[in-house]
Design brief:
With 147 residues, the protein is an all-alpha fold. The chain has one domain. Helix content is 65%, strand content 0%. It contains 5 helices and no strands.
Length: 147
Amino acid sequence: MHWMILPLKRYAEFSGRSRRMEYWMFQVFFFLALLALCIPLVLSIVLTEDLQKGSEAPGPLFWMSIALMVLFWLAMIIPGIAVTVRRLHDRDLSGWIYLGVIVCSFVPLVSFITGIAFLVLMFLPGTVGENSYGPDPKDPSRASVFE
């Protein structure tokens, strides 16, 4: 759980490095939280269909669920970008590469290739030792890197 919450503690910190564990556990946290927020949405759709046969208007639970999902997503934009930039720094790459990936995602075929390449890049281990973005977060002698 520590790894899932760590990017929230480092909310808008774009400098430094993040391990793969921090990045991927944040992604798991984000996915599970969105999944949990989808449960009331699905329930509202099922209840609306059962209670109001023939009525297509969504109820208030539907709109509240949508609002919660949007608010959660908006709250997670900054830490999501920050942990991704720090993960790129761990590979000794500039965080501006992420902007390039986002821009390339608007081009149909290029977005697929870029997405696969970026996914592979996020799975690769970071550079060993200190790089131009800071000390190695896996170095046991530097335990204060995450504090």
